[in-house]
Amino acid sequence: MCMNAKDKKKVKTVVCCLVEFLLFAAIVFVFCWPFKVEGVSMEDTFVTGDRVMISRAMVFLGHCTRGDFVVCKVPLYGKEEYIIKRLVGLPHDVVRIEQGFVYINDTLLTEDYVKGGYTPGHVERTLGDDEYFLMGDNRAKSYDSRVIGPIKEDQLVGKVIFQFPWFKNDFVGR
């Protein structure tokens, strides 16, 4: 069967579109991953069922700063689990939690986002070269660096770069 020039052009266009789509999809999956939030530790910022996009490249390139949301891999119940937390302490920081307040390098951290406005526990820790201190926004119910200690850089999986608003789970607890 022989195709005319018009049909060949259509096939070429379809093939080019398909290749472009596959290339785009490969780039997205190499650098970005979707992540589903589970648990109460990040309430009211994120709730169970919320979905976010994380960038693995941002972590690899060292573009994580205090206040960012990150996903990391931690041992939980005898296996490795992925959790989402707020990055509070950076390498070489001195993190101190005292009387319900968080201090970084002896400066009080302003945290309007903390559920209940209080951080339980007492911590004083100087972070190493590749250590990060992570905490959930719902401090009373968060399994974080106060319990498991600092997170090593190789445990960081990705930085949250986008929250899907159409997946915002507004029906949790109703």
Structural overview:
This protein has 174 residues and is of the alpha+beta class. It is 21% helix and 34% strand. The protein contains 3 helices and 11 strands; from the N terminus they run H-E-E-H-E-E-E-E-E-E-E-H-E-E. The strands form 2 sheets. Strands 1-2-11-3-4-9-10 form a 7-stranded antiparallel β-sheet. Strand 6 and strand 7 form a beta hairpin. It is elongated and about 80 Å long. The N and C termini lie far apart (62 Å).
Notable features of this structure?
174 residues; alpha+beta; 7-stranded antiparallel sheet; 4-stranded antiparallel sheet
Q: Within the largest sheet, what's the order of strands?
A: 1-2-11-3-4-9-10
Mean pLDDT: 88
Q: Number of helical runs?
A: 3
Order of helices and strands: HEEHEEEEEEEHEE
Relative strand content: 25-35%
Element layout with pairings:
Elements: H1 5-31, E1 32-36, E2 51-55, H2 56-60, E3 69-76, E4 79-89, E5 94-98, E6 101-104, E7 107-108, E8 123-126, E9 131-135, H3 145-148, E10 151-152, E11 156-163
Antiparallel strand pairs: 1-2, 2-11, 3-4, 3-11, 4-9, 5-6, 5-8, 6-7, 9-10
